[in-house]
Design brief:
Radius of gyration: 27 Å
Largest sheet: 5 strands, mixed
Number of strands: 39
Structural class: mainly beta
CATH topology of the largest domain: Methylamine Dehydrogenase, Chain H
Shape: globular
Low-confidence stretches: 7-62
Bound molecules: [4Cu:2S] cluster, dinuclear copper ion, calcium ion
Strand content: 35-45%
Oligomer: single chain
Number of domains: 3
Helix content: under 10%
Pathway: Nitrogen metabolism; nitrate reduction (denitrification); dinitrogen from nitrate: step 4/4
Subcellular location: Periplasm
CATH architecture of the largest domain: 7 Propeller
Distance between the termini: 67 Å
Strand order of the largest sheet: 8-9-10-11-15
Function: Nitrous-oxide reductase is part of a bacterial respiratory system which is activated under anaerobic conditions in the presence of nitrate or nitrous oxide.
CATH class of the largest domain: Mainly Beta
Enzyme class: oxidoreductase
Mean pLDDT: 92
GO biological process, one term: denitrification pathway
Number of helices: 7
């Protein structure tokens, strides 16, 4: 019997690969007719052949994905969780999920959104309830030092409510969230890699954020029916304080974001230079843009007071529109044209190029950063002179990764492939050398790939070992589980000339972007420091019930298998703040605290302190118990909360 899932041909009618291609192309209407042309260097079977035979399983050797019991992975992966609103930590090459880091939305396992500390990070309304309970994380990037990850922080966006979250990579927790003012659809995110002016600052101090949707500024109910007045902005957040530094008013929209290694440039691809409100309008122009920001000049303008503010926000907004930036010598922005509705923008590890994928155009556009700087210096007349290649690579190109050996790997959404192409060969081809074979290899993936990333891909340390591909559709690759399919994260060995598919991993929807780095980049702490927590109950003797009118503070500690208070009593109607410190300092000795009928549950790691505040509105006896298995007497680890009527 075959181990492969049976598929009823009647419900499919044709190869699934072809089916989705046809459907996707139909949805894109006539504007993408150009996409039907076969890419120049494409092998004959590439564009829309029948379902490909699965690649042979990768056998043995250093790159096997199967680790022996007890063996550790060699790489970490940080994955965005899409509209789960979380961040996931994977071990690679095994693909094992090690942790989910809650940031924007509540998480019942650890009590994120339940404890006072997490609510303070997430943001609350005046009544103390959470301001938002939904989020959509897409893009996640780590902090840099000397062009490589330094393992301090990662940042992730929330597209729904335009928030940026920071992850501390010492504890793998979210410690700050900032809501960007006056923007919607915050999508692309990228930290800078050094300061554009001060060479001593060779690490991340800013994070750039691209907003996709244009809105009236301010969005206060005026101009709602005047879409020609809607505008979008590019934002800069301080990496340390997480406060807004500045914003740039732009023409068109932002999508993804990239930064140069010298700190001088940031960019966003634009798919809506048309400022369209409907998709037909957004795809009416033949070319859109990659919009460059001159960081040093923007900050000089802010310093010189050449800015406005919008609505109640105090954040300086400089003018980055086309009209105001025609003179290269003073321009803050430069609009390099890129074919039809480009998607990603990615910085090559040789520090020279930004690459935009065409999406509705079967091309990749290579922009040389030195030439963009030449334009800003008045040394090049037309900014489009910075385009050094625009080559056909396949249908529906979205995102690009790098191997550090001069090759780029771009996902082809419509072709369900990854195309490996050589950047310098593409530049030669574009310059007229028609013998330059820039497409090196193609690999079928399953199916409809979006993001792609390789080990240390967007750093100077790109090592060309593994490539992960986020496939949006899994279709027949896993046991059926009803209509809602998992996605398929595929791992590819890129250490040789040919890409080799190594493994499929079902994932809960919907990861977008991710980064992969060597395990020695981070040194996670196994136990908290008591001093991280201002409320810490540092000694069991500090435990007790402390009353101040109707406000009651309950302080307790945990040490397996007991809480320091065997019971505690409050009165109906009291506002109770319960502070719990776990005084166990042994690695992996986590306790939990769950209170029946009061909707309280959180975990408490070694030497961690958490607090909750609630109204004791239900009289009775409530067995608060340890919810995390910690000890042979775990079930006995409880305390009685007595609420007197
Ligand atoms: S977008 Cu998801 S596949 Cu948000 Cu980076 Cu391209
Ligand atoms: Cu403490 Cu279970
Ligand atoms: Ca467009």
């Amino acid at each position: 019997m075959s181990n492969k899932r049976e598929v009823n041909p009647e419900t499919v009618g044709m190869g699934r690969r072809r089916f989705i291609n046809t459907a996707a192309l139909a949805g894109l209407t006539v504007g993408v007719a150009a996409c039907n042309d076969k890419p120049a260097n494409a092998p004959a079977a590439a564009a829309s052949g029948p379902v490909a035979a699965p690649a042979a399983a990768h056998s043995g050797g250093a790159n096997a994905t199967h680790l022996k019991p007890g063996e550790l992975d060699t790489y970490y992966g940080l994955w965005s969780g899409g509209h789960n609103g979380d961040v996931r930590v994977l071990g690679l090459p095994s693909g094992r999920e090690l942790l989910r880091i809650p940031c924007f939305v509540p998480d019942a396992l650890v009590g994120w959104g339940i404890t006072n500390e997490s609510k303070a990070v997430m943001g609350t309304k005046p009544d103390g309830s959470l301001r938002y309970t939904v989020a959509d994380t897409h893009h996640l990037h780590g902090s840099y030092k000397d062009g490589n990850y330094d393992g301090r922080y990662a940042w992730v966006n929330d597209k729904i409510n335009s928030r940026i979250a920071r992850i501390r990579l010492d504890y793998f927790i979210c410690d700050k969230i900032t809501e960007l003012p006056n923007v919607q659809g915050f999508h692309g995110i990228f930290p800078d890699k050094r300061d554009p002016v001060d060479p001593a600052i060779n690490y991340t101090t800013r994070v750039f954020c691209g907003a996709e949707f244009a809105i009236p500024l301010p969005n206060d109910g005026k101009d709602v029916n005047a879409p020609e007045k809607y505008r979008s902005m590019f934002s800069c957040v301080d990496a340390e304080t997480m406060e807004m530094r500045w914003q740039v008013l732009i023409d068109g929209n932002c999508d993804l974001t990239a930064t140069s290694y010298d700190g001088k440039l940031a960019a966003t691809n634009q798919y809506n230079v048309e400022n369209g409100v409907h998709y037909e309008d957004m795809m009416s122009a033949e070319r859109d843009a990659c919009l460059f920001f001159n960081i040093a000049r923007i900050e000089e303008a802010v310093k010189a007071g050449k800015f406005k503010t919008v609505g109640s926000s105090k954040v300086p907004v400089v003018d980055g529109t086309r009209e105001a930036n025609k003179d290269p010598k003073t321009a803050l922005t430069a609009y390099v044209s890129v074919p039809k509705n480009p998607h990603g923008v990615n910085a090559s590890p040789d520090q020279k190029y930004f690459i935009c994928a065409g999406k509705l155009s079967p091309t990749a556009t290579v922009i040389e950063l030195a030439k963009v700087l030449d334009w800003f210096d008045g040394k090049m007349e037309k900014v489009d002179g910075a385009i050094v290649a625009e080559v056909e690579i396949g249908l529906g190109p979205l995102h690009t990764a790098f191997d550090g050996r001069g090759n780029a790997y771009t996902t082809l959404f419509l072709d369900s492939q990854v195309v490996k192409w050589n950047v310098e060969a593409a530049i030669k081809f574009h310059a007229g050398d028609k013998n330059a074979k820039y497409v090196v290899d193609r690999l079928d993936v399953h199916y409809q790939p979006g993001h792609i990333n390789a080990t240390h891909s967007e750093t100077v340390a790109a090592d060309g070992k593994y490539l992960a591909v986020g496939c949006k559709f899994s279709k027949d690759r896993f046991l059926p589980v009803g209509p809602f399919h998992p996605e398929n994260e595929q791992l590819v060995d890129i250490s040789g000339d040919k890409m080799v598919l190594m493994a499929d991993h079902p994932v809960r929807g919907e990861p977008h972007d991710f980064i992969i780095f060597k395990r020695d980049i981070v040194k996670p702490k196994q136990v908290y420091d008591l001093n991280e927590f201002p409320l810490a109950v540092k000694d069991t003797k500090e435990s007790g019930v402390f009353r101040n009118g109707k406000k009651v503070t309950v302080k307790l500690t945990s040490q397996a298998p007991a809480f320091s208070l065997r019971e505690f009593t409050v009165k109906k109607g009291d506002e109770v703040t319960l502070i719990l410190t776990n005084l166990d300092k042994i690695e992996d000795l986590t306790h939990g605290f769950a209170v029946p009928k009061y909707n309280i549950q959180f975990v408490i790691n070694p030497l961690e302190t958490k607090s909750v505040t609630f109204i004791a509105d239900k009289p009775g006896v409530f067995w608060a118990y340890c919810s995390t298995f910690c000890h042979a007497l775990h079930l006995e680890m409880r305390t009685r909360m007595i609420v007197e009527a």
